[in-house]
Amino acid sequence: MPNKLQIIFNSSEIGAGTCGASLGPQAIVAAARQKKSSLFHTYKPSVLKDWNALLDQPSNFPFAKRIDGMVKVYKEVASCVELTLKENNFPILIAADHCSAGGTIKGIQNAFPNKKLGVLWIDAHADLHTPYTTPSGNMHGMPLATAIGTDNLSCKRNDIDTNTAVMWHGLKSTALLPENLIYVAVRDTETEEDSLIAEHNIKNYTVAELRSKGLNSILEEIKNRFSSCDLVYISFDVDSMDPKYSSYGTGTPVKDGLTVKEAKTLIMETLRMPQTIAFELVEVNPCLDDQKNKMAEIALSILEEAISTIEQK
Ligand SMILES: [Mn+2]
After folding, report:
1. Fewest Cβ atoms closer than 10 Å to its Cβ: which of 2, 91, 196, 296?
2. Ligand 1 center–CA 123 separation, angstroms
3. Phi and psi, residue 103, nearest 5°
């Protein structure tokens, strides 16, 4: 059982293609204040440094934009997560772009180098691109490639410069074995990612499978798949949810996603697993919201439920 919870705000958005996700954590704070919640008084967030000023100038690295800043972001996130876990506290990260998760996974590995990690990745996207395969150069599509330590050279489409190659190599680790990665709701992938998913036989619970088998049976399967893992980390991108049930307040919304209730059930039941030691929520972008601050309000309600679930562990 963890001693206590530690909320961590990471406002880095240098990995995203659309700006505004850096305002996500503060939009969630605004939603809490609006409903007179004292959540952020009870759990005072640690606020990480960001390198978002890099967005005010062109990037020199077209196939891994602002990777010079991303190296720093990974270190910042990893060291905070490592420290939080070593103090036997439960980290809850509220982050802007999903690249944050690459730092989180590194931090977990640094805290527990000999333990086997499982990752539940709830997202519309597979985030398995590398600088060698990316069509956009946006690094928020790459965190899982760094965590499993792949270049995916068999699908190479870009010739990258030496600086990018060296920095990319530094971000990679073997913190996560592909067989211990489970996707939920991934539905917007590119062929280079599909090839890695097939090569490593990575399981993706599609929204259709989840509805046909039922959430309870999917959760049983997830528990079985994680039974050989010592630790579990949940990485939740709000774009896993269908914009028609949530809102368009996220950088890359994709239709046909989860309902808010399905997302909550998946997260809460996985949080109840004894091995689960970290949770992250990412990609709330209030600049893009078509319904005032609705995505942040939904994120807040997920956060509140997650906290009460962890408190009961
Ligand atoms: Mn996503």
Report:
1. 2
2. 5
3. -70, -40
What's this model's pTM, rounded to 2 decimal places? 0.98
SS3 content of the chain, % helix, strand, coil (to 5): 45, 15, 40
Q: What is the average pLDDT value for the chain, to the nearest integer?
A: 97
d(CA 310, CA 299): 16
Domain positions in the chain: 5-311
Distance 3 CA to ligand 1 centre (A): 31
**pLDDT tens digits, 237-268:** 999 999 999 999 999 999 999 999 999 999 99
Cα–Cα distance measured from residue 39 to residue 100, given in angstroms and rounded to the nearest whole number = 23
Separation of CA 141 and ligand 1 centre (Å)? 8
- Phi/psi for 283 (5° steps) reads 70, 25
Distance 252 CA to ligand 1 centre (A): 7
The domain at 5-311 falls in which architecture? 3-Layer(aba) Sandwich (3.40)
How far is the centre of ligand 1, averaged over its atoms, from the C-alpha of 36 (Å)? 30
Ligand 1 centroid–CA 301 distance in Å is 19
